[in-house]
Amino acid sequence: MQLIIMRHGEAGMNANDFDRELTERGRLASAKVARDIAASPWRPKLIWSSPLVRARQTAAIVSEVLNCPVVLKDHITPDDDPGDCLNLLLDAQVDRLMIVSHMPLVGALSTLLVDGHRRGLPFMTSEAVMLDLPIAGPGCADLKGQFLP
């Protein structure tokens, strides 16, 4: 499986956590990363998005650029266990997937897949990493690169 893990774009602080919307800067940075992904050989076939507004908006931007469907997943919100997301990956029937979520989940999931621990890589907003995942399991992924805003 080729997996891209992306943190949502920059969001404003003027609403409750679930409803925070992307700023203009967040929209532009997410679109830039989406264009970079589109120009790469790492185009996903499906995007999983957190149901929180800022992640849904980021996924919608990426989806439009990549012409790729989005599915909302409840177990990829900021405080969810990366092990639950790994279980979802084990059942995934897609070979090229993108996940749009939040810190600390994106960092913890990335290190779980690459290094087998959950300490977590730092992610800036709109950043995405590319993982080659021959099998879904802790420590089974190779970090192949990143897309920066």
Describe this structure in words.
With 149 residues, the chain is of the alpha/beta class. It has one domain: Rossmann fold, CATH 3.40.50.1240. 34% of the residues lie in helices and 20% in strands. The chain has four helices and six strands. The chain has helices spanning 24-38, 53-66, 82-91, 105-115, and strands at residues 2-7, 46-49, 70-72, 96-101, 128-132, 142-147. Strands 3-2-4-1-5-6 form a six-stranded mixed beta sheet, with helices on both faces. Helix 3 (82-91) crosses helix 4 (105-115). The longest helix is centred in the N-terminal third of the chain and has 15 residues, at 24-38. The radius of gyration is 14 Å and the shape is globular. It starts with a strand and ends with a strand. The mean pLDDT is 95.
Short description:
The chain has 149 residues and is α/β, with parallel strands linked by helices. Helices cover 34% and strands 20% of the residues. The longest helix is centred in the first third of the chain and has 15 residues.
